[in-house]
Automatic annotation (TrEMBL):
Pfam families for this protein: GGDEF_2 (PF17853), HTH_30 (PF13556), PucR (PF07905)
Name the record gives this protein: CdaR family transcriptional regulator
Family: Belongs to the CdaR family.
Coiled-coil zones: none
Domain Purine catabolism PurC-like, chain residue ranges per copy: 15-124
Superkingdom of the source species: Bacteria
Length: 513
Protein backbone atom coordinates (compact mmCIF):
# COMPACT_ATOMS: atom_id res chain seq x y z
CA UNK A 1 0.00 0.00 0.00
CA UNK A 2 1.46 3.37 -1.03
CA UNK A 3 2.26 5.91 1.70
CA UNK A 4 -0.12 8.85 1.31
CA UNK A 5 -0.12 12.12 3.23
CA UNK A 6 -3.30 10.99 4.96
CA UNK A 7 -1.72 7.72 6.12
CA UNK A 8 1.37 9.50 7.42
CA UNK A 9 -0.78 11.94 9.41
CA UNK A 10 -2.45 8.95 11.07
CA UNK A 11 0.86 7.68 12.49
CA UNK A 12 0.24 8.10 16.23
CA UNK A 13 3.96 8.00 17.09
CA UNK A 14 4.63 11.11 15.01
CA UNK A 15 1.63 13.19 16.03
CA UNK A 16 1.45 15.06 12.71
CA UNK A 17 -1.65 17.12 11.96
CA UNK A 18 -2.99 17.89 8.50
CA UNK A 19 -3.82 21.60 8.76
CA UNK A 20 -4.25 22.64 5.12
CA UNK A 21 -4.50 21.32 1.56
CA UNK A 22 -6.91 18.56 2.52
CA UNK A 23 -7.85 18.05 -1.14
CA UNK A 24 -4.38 16.58 -1.75
CA UNK A 25 -4.37 14.26 1.25
CA UNK A 26 -4.22 11.19 -1.01
CA UNK A 27 -0.94 12.25 -2.61
CA UNK A 28 1.74 9.57 -2.50
CA UNK A 29 4.95 10.34 -0.61
CA UNK A 30 8.04 8.94 -2.32
CA UNK A 31 10.67 10.45 -0.02
CA UNK A 32 11.16 12.85 2.91
CA UNK A 33 13.63 15.73 2.68
CA UNK A 34 14.46 18.44 5.24
CA UNK A 35 15.58 21.68 3.58
CA UNK A 36 15.89 25.27 4.79
CA UNK A 37 16.19 27.16 1.49
CA UNK A 38 13.90 29.87 0.23
CA UNK A 39 13.64 27.97 -3.05
CA UNK A 40 13.87 24.19 -2.53
CA UNK A 41 12.73 23.47 -6.10
CA UNK A 42 16.20 22.84 -7.62
CA UNK A 43 16.88 20.23 -4.94
CA UNK A 44 13.80 18.06 -5.26
CA UNK A 45 12.58 15.85 -8.11
CA UNK A 46 8.91 15.40 -7.22
CA UNK A 47 6.99 13.30 -4.73
CA UNK A 48 8.92 14.48 -1.68
CA UNK A 49 7.61 15.47 1.72
CA UNK A 50 9.50 18.76 2.22
CA UNK A 51 10.24 19.45 5.90
CA UNK A 52 11.20 22.92 7.20
CA UNK A 53 11.51 24.80 10.49
CA UNK A 54 10.37 27.91 8.64
CA UNK A 55 13.68 29.76 8.60
CA UNK A 56 13.42 30.70 4.89
CA UNK A 57 9.71 30.75 4.13
CA UNK A 58 9.43 34.51 4.62
CA UNK A 59 7.54 36.57 7.21
CA UNK A 60 4.71 37.85 5.00
CA UNK A 61 1.70 36.04 3.58
CA UNK A 62 2.77 36.85 0.01
CA UNK A 63 6.27 35.46 0.54
CA UNK A 64 4.84 32.32 2.09
CA UNK A 65 2.41 31.94 -0.82
CA UNK A 66 5.31 32.23 -3.26
CA UNK A 67 7.22 29.60 -1.25
CA UNK A 68 4.36 27.14 -1.49
CA UNK A 69 3.92 27.96 -5.19
CA UNK A 70 7.53 26.96 -5.86
CA UNK A 71 6.95 23.63 -4.10
CA UNK A 72 3.84 22.97 -6.17
CA UNK A 73 5.70 23.70 -9.40
CA UNK A 74 8.44 21.29 -8.31
CA UNK A 75 5.73 18.63 -7.75
CA UNK A 76 6.38 18.21 -4.04
CA UNK A 77 3.97 15.78 -2.38
CA UNK A 78 3.45 17.81 0.80
CA UNK A 79 4.98 20.34 3.20
CA UNK A 80 5.71 19.64 6.89
CA UNK A 81 6.31 22.69 9.14
CA UNK A 82 7.93 22.40 12.57
CA UNK A 83 5.96 24.16 15.33
CA UNK A 84 8.58 24.16 18.06
CA UNK A 85 11.38 26.45 16.84
CA UNK A 86 10.66 29.30 14.43
CA UNK A 87 6.86 29.16 14.73
CA UNK A 88 4.49 28.00 17.44
CA UNK A 89 1.93 27.12 14.75
CA UNK A 90 1.86 26.80 11.01
CA UNK A 91 1.70 30.38 9.64
CA UNK A 92 -1.62 31.55 8.20
CA UNK A 93 0.04 32.37 4.87
CA UNK A 94 1.27 28.80 4.49
CA UNK A 95 -2.15 27.43 5.38
CA UNK A 96 -3.92 29.71 2.93
CA UNK A 97 -1.49 28.84 0.15
CA UNK A 98 -1.85 25.12 0.86
CA UNK A 99 -5.64 25.33 0.65
CA UNK A 100 -5.54 27.50 -2.47
CA UNK A 101 -3.00 25.38 -4.35
CA UNK A 102 -4.02 21.95 -3.04
CA UNK A 103 -0.67 21.21 -1.38
CA UNK A 104 -1.11 19.26 1.88
CA UNK A 105 0.47 21.00 4.88
CA UNK A 106 1.38 19.05 8.03
CA UNK A 107 2.07 20.56 11.45
CA UNK A 108 5.00 18.82 13.17
CA UNK A 109 4.76 18.91 17.00
CA UNK A 110 7.80 20.11 18.99
CA UNK A 111 8.56 16.64 20.37
CA UNK A 112 8.86 15.05 16.90
CA UNK A 113 12.26 15.49 15.21
CA UNK A 114 12.48 15.49 11.45
CA UNK A 115 14.66 12.37 11.58
CA UNK A 116 11.71 10.47 13.10
CA UNK A 117 9.50 11.55 10.21
CA UNK A 118 12.20 10.55 7.72
CA UNK A 119 12.59 7.12 9.34
CA UNK A 120 8.85 6.55 9.30
CA UNK A 121 8.72 7.38 5.60
CA UNK A 122 11.72 5.20 4.77
CA UNK A 123 10.40 2.28 6.85
CA UNK A 124 7.04 2.43 5.12
CA UNK A 125 8.62 2.69 1.68
CA UNK A 126 10.91 -0.25 2.47
CA UNK A 127 8.02 -2.36 3.72
CA UNK A 128 6.04 -1.46 0.63
CA UNK A 129 8.98 -2.45 -1.56
CA UNK A 130 9.34 -5.76 0.29
CA UNK A 131 5.62 -6.41 -0.18
CA UNK A 132 5.93 -5.61 -3.86
CA UNK A 133 8.89 -7.98 -4.28
CA UNK A 134 7.06 -10.72 -2.38
CA UNK A 135 4.02 -10.24 -4.59
CA UNK A 136 6.24 -10.58 -7.66
CA UNK A 137 7.77 -13.78 -6.28
CA UNK A 138 4.33 -15.19 -5.45
CA UNK A 139 3.04 -14.26 -8.87
CA UNK A 140 6.05 -15.87 -10.55
CA UNK A 141 5.23 -19.13 -8.76
CA UNK A 142 1.63 -18.81 -9.89
CA UNK A 143 2.73 -18.26 -13.49
CA UNK A 144 4.72 -21.50 -13.41
CA UNK A 145 1.74 -23.42 -12.02
CA UNK A 146 -0.61 -21.89 -14.58
CA UNK A 147 1.72 -22.89 -17.42
CA UNK A 148 1.93 -26.46 -16.15
CA UNK A 149 -1.81 -26.78 -15.64
CA UNK A 150 -3.19 -24.95 -18.65
CA UNK A 151 -0.36 -24.24 -21.05
CA UNK A 152 0.21 -20.93 -22.78
CA UNK A 153 -3.44 -19.69 -22.68
CA UNK A 154 -3.53 -19.99 -18.87
CA UNK A 155 -0.21 -18.17 -18.55
CA UNK A 156 -1.29 -15.30 -20.83
CA UNK A 157 -4.55 -14.96 -18.90
CA UNK A 158 -2.70 -15.00 -15.56
CA UNK A 159 -0.34 -12.25 -16.76
CA UNK A 160 -3.24 -10.13 -17.95
CA UNK A 161 -5.05 -10.49 -14.63
CA UNK A 162 -1.93 -9.76 -12.59
CA UNK A 163 -1.31 -6.54 -14.53
CA UNK A 164 -5.00 -5.66 -15.10
CA UNK A 165 -4.00 -5.30 -18.74
CA UNK A 166 -4.73 -6.80 -22.13
CA UNK A 167 -2.13 -9.37 -23.23
CA UNK A 168 -1.62 -11.05 -26.60
CA UNK A 169 0.84 -13.69 -27.79
CA UNK A 170 1.44 -14.30 -31.50
CA UNK A 171 3.76 -16.74 -33.22
CA UNK A 172 6.70 -15.67 -35.37
CA UNK A 173 4.40 -15.27 -38.40
CA UNK A 174 1.86 -13.17 -36.49
CA UNK A 175 -0.71 -15.90 -35.91
CA UNK A 176 -2.62 -15.40 -32.66
CA UNK A 177 -1.69 -18.01 -30.05
CA UNK A 178 -3.55 -16.54 -27.08
CA UNK A 179 -5.39 -13.31 -26.27
CA UNK A 180 -6.76 -11.77 -23.07
CA UNK A 181 -8.44 -8.50 -22.19
CA UNK A 182 -10.71 -5.82 -23.69
CA UNK A 183 -7.94 -4.10 -25.66
CA UNK A 184 -6.62 -7.36 -27.13
CA UNK A 185 -7.61 -6.38 -30.67
CA UNK A 186 -5.32 -3.36 -30.83
CA UNK A 187 -2.57 -5.20 -28.96
CA UNK A 188 -2.81 -7.97 -31.57
CA UNK A 189 -2.40 -5.45 -34.40
CA UNK A 190 0.74 -3.99 -32.80
CA UNK A 191 2.20 -7.44 -32.12
CA UNK A 192 1.67 -8.43 -35.74
CA UNK A 193 3.22 -5.18 -36.91
CA UNK A 194 6.37 -5.88 -34.92
CA UNK A 195 6.47 -9.50 -36.12
CA UNK A 196 6.28 -8.38 -39.75
CA UNK A 197 9.11 -5.92 -39.25
CA UNK A 198 11.34 -8.33 -37.36
CA UNK A 199 12.40 -10.17 -40.49
CA UNK A 200 14.01 -7.04 -41.89
CA UNK A 201 15.25 -5.30 -38.75
CA UNK A 202 15.61 -8.18 -36.27
CA UNK A 203 13.38 -6.18 -33.92
CA UNK A 204 13.50 -7.41 -30.33
CA UNK A 205 10.47 -5.34 -29.41
CA UNK A 206 9.11 -1.86 -29.00
CA UNK A 207 7.21 0.39 -26.61
CA UNK A 208 4.85 3.18 -27.63
CA UNK A 209 1.55 4.79 -26.74
CA UNK A 210 -1.53 6.06 -28.53
CA UNK A 211 -4.80 7.60 -27.43
CA UNK A 212 -6.02 4.19 -26.25
CA UNK A 213 -3.19 2.69 -24.21
CA UNK A 214 0.53 2.20 -23.70
CA UNK A 215 1.89 -0.82 -25.57
CA UNK A 216 4.89 -2.99 -24.82
CA UNK A 217 5.79 -5.59 -27.46
CA UNK A 218 8.66 -7.99 -26.82
CA UNK A 219 10.01 -10.90 -28.83
CA UNK A 220 9.90 -14.34 -27.25
CA UNK A 221 13.13 -15.90 -28.47
CA UNK A 222 14.71 -19.33 -28.30
CA UNK A 223 18.43 -19.54 -29.11
CA UNK A 224 18.24 -15.93 -30.40
CA UNK A 225 15.53 -16.86 -32.89
CA UNK A 226 12.11 -15.23 -32.37
CA UNK A 227 9.38 -17.82 -31.80
CA UNK A 228 6.68 -15.29 -31.02
CA UNK A 229 5.81 -11.81 -29.76
CA UNK A 230 4.16 -10.82 -26.49
CA UNK A 231 2.17 -7.58 -26.45
CA UNK A 232 0.88 -5.86 -23.30
CA UNK A 233 -1.62 -3.00 -23.53
CA UNK A 234 -1.83 -1.01 -20.29
CA UNK A 235 -3.58 2.25 -19.32
CA UNK A 236 -0.19 3.71 -18.29
CA UNK A 237 3.47 2.76 -18.49
CA UNK A 238 4.25 -0.39 -16.51
CA UNK A 239 5.92 -0.08 -13.12
CA UNK A 240 9.26 -1.85 -12.49
CA UNK A 241 7.55 -4.69 -10.60
CA UNK A 242 5.12 -5.15 -13.46
CA UNK A 243 7.97 -5.26 -15.96
CA UNK A 244 9.54 -8.01 -13.86
CA UNK A 245 6.35 -10.04 -14.21
CA UNK A 246 6.38 -9.54 -17.97
CA UNK A 247 10.02 -10.64 -18.13
CA UNK A 248 9.29 -13.76 -16.08
CA UNK A 249 6.29 -14.64 -18.24
CA UNK A 250 8.45 -14.25 -21.34
CA UNK A 251 11.07 -16.60 -19.87
CA UNK A 252 8.40 -19.23 -19.26
CA UNK A 253 7.00 -18.73 -22.76
CA UNK A 254 10.49 -19.17 -24.25
CA UNK A 255 10.89 -22.45 -22.39
CA UNK A 256 7.46 -23.65 -23.50
CA UNK A 257 7.88 -22.64 -27.15
CA UNK A 258 11.39 -24.03 -27.33
CA UNK A 259 10.87 -27.47 -25.84
CA UNK A 260 13.39 -29.94 -27.27
CA UNK A 261 12.04 -32.70 -29.48
CA UNK A 262 12.83 -35.36 -26.87
CA UNK A 263 10.79 -33.50 -24.26
CA UNK A 264 7.88 -33.17 -26.68
CA UNK A 265 8.05 -36.89 -27.52
CA UNK A 266 8.06 -37.83 -23.83
CA UNK A 267 5.18 -35.45 -23.19
CA UNK A 268 3.17 -36.99 -26.02
CA UNK A 269 3.78 -40.49 -24.70
CA UNK A 270 2.44 -39.38 -21.34
CA UNK A 271 -0.48 -37.65 -23.05
CA UNK A 272 -1.31 -40.89 -24.87
CA UNK A 273 -1.27 -42.90 -21.65
CA UNK A 274 -3.47 -40.35 -19.86
CA UNK A 275 -5.92 -40.24 -22.78
CA UNK A 276 -6.30 -44.00 -22.86
CA UNK A 277 -6.62 -44.15 -19.07
CA UNK A 278 -9.29 -41.45 -19.18
CA UNK A 279 -11.37 -43.47 -21.64
CA UNK A 280 -10.96 -46.69 -19.66
CA UNK A 281 -11.10 -45.40 -16.07
CA UNK A 282 -13.29 -42.32 -16.35
CA UNK A 283 -13.86 -40.74 -12.91
CA UNK A 284 -11.30 -43.05 -11.29
CA UNK A 285 -8.42 -41.30 -13.09
CA UNK A 286 -6.31 -39.01 -10.89
CA UNK A 287 -7.36 -35.43 -11.67
CA UNK A 288 -3.76 -34.29 -11.15
CA UNK A 289 -2.81 -35.99 -14.42
CA UNK A 290 -5.49 -34.02 -16.23
CA UNK A 291 -4.29 -30.71 -14.77
CA UNK A 292 -0.85 -31.25 -16.28
CA UNK A 293 -2.50 -31.03 -19.70
CA UNK A 294 -4.72 -28.04 -18.94
CA UNK A 295 -7.90 -29.76 -17.74
CA UNK A 296 -9.58 -30.28 -14.39
CA UNK A 297 -12.38 -32.55 -13.23
CA UNK A 298 -15.04 -29.95 -14.08
CA UNK A 299 -13.92 -29.27 -17.65
CA UNK A 300 -16.51 -30.02 -20.31
CA UNK A 301 -14.97 -31.59 -23.40
CA UNK A 302 -15.74 -33.16 -26.75
CA UNK A 303 -14.10 -36.23 -28.25
CA UNK A 304 -13.05 -36.10 -31.90
CA UNK A 305 -12.15 -39.17 -33.95
CA UNK A 306 -10.06 -38.66 -37.08
CA UNK A 307 -9.85 -41.45 -39.66
CA UNK A 308 -7.56 -42.36 -42.58
CA UNK A 309 -4.55 -40.70 -40.92
CA UNK A 310 -2.07 -43.36 -42.01
CA UNK A 311 0.86 -44.42 -39.79
CA UNK A 312 0.25 -43.44 -36.19
CA UNK A 313 3.55 -41.77 -35.30
CA UNK A 314 3.59 -39.17 -38.11
CA UNK A 315 -0.12 -38.53 -37.53
CA UNK A 316 0.42 -37.95 -33.82
CA UNK A 317 3.41 -35.70 -34.44
CA UNK A 318 1.66 -33.53 -37.03
CA UNK A 319 -1.56 -33.30 -35.02
CA UNK A 320 0.32 -32.27 -31.90
CA UNK A 321 2.23 -29.62 -33.84
CA UNK A 322 -0.92 -28.13 -35.40
CA UNK A 323 -2.76 -27.92 -32.08
CA UNK A 324 0.23 -26.75 -30.04
CA UNK A 325 0.66 -23.78 -32.36
CA UNK A 326 -2.85 -22.73 -31.33
CA UNK A 327 -2.04 -23.13 -27.62
CA UNK A 328 -5.14 -25.28 -27.12
CA UNK A 329 -5.14 -27.74 -24.18
CA UNK A 330 -5.69 -31.23 -25.58
CA UNK A 331 -5.40 -34.96 -25.07
CA UNK A 332 -4.41 -37.19 -27.97
CA UNK A 333 -4.08 -40.92 -28.56
CA UNK A 334 -4.02 -43.40 -31.44
CA UNK A 335 -7.12 -45.61 -31.68
CA UNK A 336 -8.15 -48.38 -34.05
CA UNK A 337 -9.71 -46.12 -36.68
CA UNK A 338 -7.11 -43.36 -36.45
CA UNK A 339 -6.78 -40.72 -33.74
CA UNK A 340 -8.73 -39.68 -30.68
CA UNK A 341 -8.52 -35.99 -29.80
CA UNK A 342 -10.08 -34.49 -26.66
CA UNK A 343 -10.51 -30.70 -26.40
CA UNK A 344 -12.73 -28.30 -24.47
CA UNK A 345 -16.29 -28.09 -25.74
CA UNK A 346 -15.87 -24.52 -27.01
CA UNK A 347 -14.03 -25.99 -30.01
CA UNK A 348 -16.96 -26.31 -32.39
CA UNK A 349 -17.47 -27.89 -35.78
CA UNK A 350 -15.75 -25.04 -37.68
CA UNK A 351 -12.62 -25.50 -35.59
CA UNK A 352 -12.62 -29.23 -36.36
CA UNK A 353 -13.10 -28.55 -40.08
CA UNK A 354 -10.07 -26.24 -40.10
CA UNK A 355 -8.01 -28.75 -38.11
CA UNK A 356 -8.87 -31.59 -40.49
CA UNK A 357 -7.98 -29.42 -43.49
CA UNK A 358 -4.58 -28.46 -42.07
CA UNK A 359 -3.78 -31.96 -40.90
CA UNK A 360 -4.89 -33.49 -44.19
CA UNK A 361 -2.61 -31.13 -46.11
CA UNK A 362 0.36 -32.08 -43.93
CA UNK A 363 -0.29 -35.81 -44.13
CA UNK A 364 -1.33 -35.62 -47.80
CA UNK A 365 -4.42 -37.70 -47.05
CA UNK A 366 -8.18 -37.21 -47.23
CA UNK A 367 -9.37 -37.27 -43.65
CA UNK A 368 -12.78 -37.57 -42.03
CA UNK A 369 -13.66 -36.69 -38.46
CA UNK A 370 -16.52 -37.28 -36.07
CA UNK A 371 -17.24 -34.87 -33.22
CA UNK A 372 -19.03 -36.25 -30.18
CA UNK A 373 -21.37 -34.43 -27.88
CA UNK A 374 -20.36 -32.35 -24.87
CA UNK A 375 -19.50 -34.30 -21.72
CA UNK A 376 -17.77 -33.69 -18.43
CA UNK A 377 -14.20 -34.92 -18.87
CA UNK A 378 -14.74 -38.03 -16.74
CA UNK A 379 -17.37 -39.11 -19.30
CA UNK A 380 -15.05 -38.76 -22.30
CA UNK A 381 -15.82 -42.38 -23.25
CA UNK A 382 -19.45 -41.38 -23.89
CA UNK A 383 -18.39 -38.54 -26.19
CA UNK A 384 -16.01 -40.95 -27.94
CA UNK A 385 -18.85 -43.37 -28.66
CA UNK A 386 -20.86 -40.48 -30.03
CA UNK A 387 -17.97 -39.37 -32.25
CA UNK A 388 -17.70 -42.87 -33.67
CA UNK A 389 -21.45 -42.97 -34.15
CA UNK A 390 -21.31 -39.66 -36.00
CA UNK A 391 -18.80 -41.06 -38.48
CA UNK A 392 -20.76 -44.23 -39.18
CA UNK A 393 -24.28 -42.85 -38.99
CA UNK A 394 -23.84 -39.36 -40.41
CA UNK A 395 -23.72 -38.20 -44.03
CA UNK A 396 -20.85 -39.95 -45.79
CA UNK A 397 -20.17 -36.98 -48.05
CA UNK A 398 -19.30 -34.76 -45.07
CA UNK A 399 -15.63 -34.36 -44.07
CA UNK A 400 -16.60 -33.57 -40.49
CA UNK A 401 -19.75 -34.99 -38.92
CA UNK A 402 -21.00 -33.65 -35.62
CA UNK A 403 -23.00 -36.07 -33.51
CA UNK A 404 -25.86 -33.59 -33.52
CA UNK A 405 -25.89 -33.82 -37.34
CA UNK A 406 -27.07 -37.43 -37.15
CA UNK A 407 -30.55 -36.23 -36.23
CA UNK A 408 -32.80 -38.93 -34.79
CA UNK A 409 -29.89 -41.33 -34.38
CA UNK A 410 -28.17 -38.89 -31.98
CA UNK A 411 -31.16 -39.18 -29.66
CA UNK A 412 -31.55 -42.92 -30.08
CA UNK A 413 -27.91 -43.94 -29.77
CA UNK A 414 -26.31 -41.02 -27.90
CA UNK A 415 -23.97 -42.44 -25.27
CA UNK A 416 -25.36 -45.99 -25.56
CA UNK A 417 -23.12 -48.73 -24.22
CA UNK A 418 -22.34 -51.82 -26.35
CA UNK A 419 -24.72 -53.83 -24.17
CA UNK A 420 -27.59 -51.44 -24.82
CA UNK A 421 -26.91 -51.37 -28.57
CA UNK A 422 -26.79 -55.16 -28.63
CA UNK A 423 -30.19 -55.32 -26.96
CA UNK A 424 -31.66 -52.79 -29.41
CA UNK A 425 -30.47 -54.73 -32.45
CA UNK A 426 -30.93 -58.24 -31.08
CA UNK A 427 -34.60 -57.80 -30.20
CA UNK A 428 -35.36 -57.14 -33.89
CA UNK A 429 -32.57 -58.85 -35.82
CA UNK A 430 -32.07 -61.86 -33.53
CA UNK A 431 -33.85 -64.38 -35.80
CA UNK A 432 -31.78 -63.27 -38.79
CA UNK A 433 -28.52 -63.45 -36.85
CA UNK A 434 -29.35 -66.96 -35.64
CA UNK A 435 -30.22 -68.09 -39.17
CA UNK A 436 -26.97 -66.62 -40.57
CA UNK A 437 -24.96 -68.33 -37.84
CA UNK A 438 -26.56 -71.67 -38.62
CA UNK A 439 -26.03 -71.46 -42.37
CA UNK A 440 -22.49 -70.07 -42.45
CA UNK A 441 -21.31 -67.53 -44.99
CA UNK A 442 -23.45 -68.83 -47.84
CA UNK A 443 -26.38 -66.70 -46.76
CA UNK A 444 -26.19 -63.35 -44.94
CA UNK A 445 -29.72 -62.14 -44.34
CA UNK A 446 -28.63 -59.22 -42.11
CA UNK A 447 -26.47 -57.85 -44.92
CA UNK A 448 -29.27 -58.44 -47.42
CA UNK A 449 -31.70 -56.50 -45.21
CA UNK A 450 -29.24 -53.65 -44.67
CA UNK A 451 -28.55 -53.32 -48.39
CA UNK A 452 -32.25 -53.52 -49.29
CA UNK A 453 -33.12 -50.75 -46.81
CA UNK A 454 -30.22 -48.59 -47.95
CA UNK A 455 -31.48 -48.85 -51.53
CA UNK A 456 -34.98 -47.71 -50.56
CA UNK A 457 -36.37 -51.29 -50.69
CA UNK A 458 -35.53 -51.58 -54.40
CA UNK A 459 -34.78 -55.24 -55.20
CA UNK A 460 -32.83 -54.64 -58.43
CA UNK A 461 -30.57 -51.94 -56.89
CA UNK A 462 -29.85 -54.05 -53.81
CA UNK A 463 -29.10 -57.12 -55.93
CA UNK A 464 -26.72 -55.12 -58.10
CA UNK A 465 -24.86 -53.83 -55.03
CA UNK A 466 -24.52 -57.34 -53.59
CA UNK A 467 -23.64 -58.88 -56.95
CA UNK A 468 -26.47 -61.42 -56.94
CA UNK A 469 -29.42 -62.10 -59.25
CA UNK A 470 -32.61 -60.19 -58.51
CA UNK A 471 -34.49 -63.46 -57.97
CA UNK A 472 -31.92 -64.44 -55.33
CA UNK A 473 -32.36 -61.07 -53.69
CA UNK A 474 -36.15 -61.41 -53.75
CA UNK A 475 -35.89 -64.89 -52.24
CA UNK A 476 -33.67 -63.66 -49.41
CA UNK A 477 -36.02 -60.79 -48.57
CA UNK A 478 -38.95 -63.20 -48.51
CA UNK A 479 -36.98 -65.32 -46.03
CA UNK A 480 -36.31 -62.19 -43.93
CA UNK A 481 -40.02 -61.42 -43.78
CA UNK A 482 -40.82 -65.02 -42.89
CA UNK A 483 -38.25 -65.22 -40.04
CA UNK A 484 -39.19 -61.85 -38.60
CA UNK A 485 -42.90 -62.35 -39.02
CA UNK A 486 -43.20 -58.78 -40.26
CA UNK A 487 -44.75 -57.13 -43.30
CA UNK A 488 -41.77 -55.63 -45.10
CA UNK A 489 -44.06 -53.41 -47.17
CA UNK A 490 -45.05 -51.50 -44.00
CA UNK A 491 -43.30 -48.14 -43.57
CA UNK A 492 -43.46 -48.53 -39.80
CA UNK A 493 -41.75 -51.91 -39.97
CA UNK A 494 -39.02 -50.55 -42.25
CA UNK A 495 -38.28 -47.73 -39.80
CA UNK A 496 -37.96 -50.23 -36.95
CA UNK A 497 -35.68 -52.44 -39.03
CA UNK A 498 -33.51 -49.49 -40.09
CA UNK A 499 -33.01 -48.42 -36.46
CA UNK A 500 -32.02 -51.97 -35.53
CA UNK A 501 -29.59 -52.17 -38.45
CA UNK A 502 -27.96 -48.87 -37.47
CA UNK A 503 -27.65 -50.03 -33.86
CA UNK A 504 -25.95 -53.20 -35.14
CA UNK A 505 -23.54 -51.17 -37.30
CA UNK A 506 -22.56 -48.98 -34.38
CA UNK A 507 -22.19 -52.04 -32.15
CA UNK A 508 -19.79 -53.58 -34.67
CA UNK A 509 -17.68 -50.40 -34.50
CA UNK A 510 -17.54 -50.36 -30.71
CA UNK A 511 -16.88 -54.08 -30.30
CA UNK A 512 -13.89 -54.01 -32.64
CA UNK A 513 -12.22 -51.21 -30.68
Amino acid sequence: MALTVQRLSQNADLGLTLVAGHSGADRVIEWAHAIELADPAPWITGGELVMTTGLAIGPSDSEQFDYVTRLVRARAAALAVDTGMTFDAVPDGIRAAGDALGLPVLAVPPHTPFIAVTRAVIDDLTADRVRAVQQVVDQQDKFARDLLRGGIPHLVTALGRALSCSVVLVDAEGGALSVHGPDAGRALEHARSVSRGSGRRRQAGSAFADEHATYLVQSVSVAREPHGYLAVASPAALQPEERLLVAHAMALLSIELGKPAKVLDAEQRLRTVVTQALVNLGPELDAGLLRYFGFDEDTRVVAITVTNVGPALPALRETADVITRQSVPYLLSPIREGLLLVVSDDRGRDWVVELVARLGARLERTLRAGRGGTAVIAETAVSLRQARAALHLGPTQETVVDFSDTGTFSMLFGGRSPGELSAMSRIVLGPLEDYDAAHGSSVDLVTALRTWLRNDAHIESAARELGVHRHTMRSRMAKVGQLLGRDLDSAEVRVELWIAVKARELLDVLETD
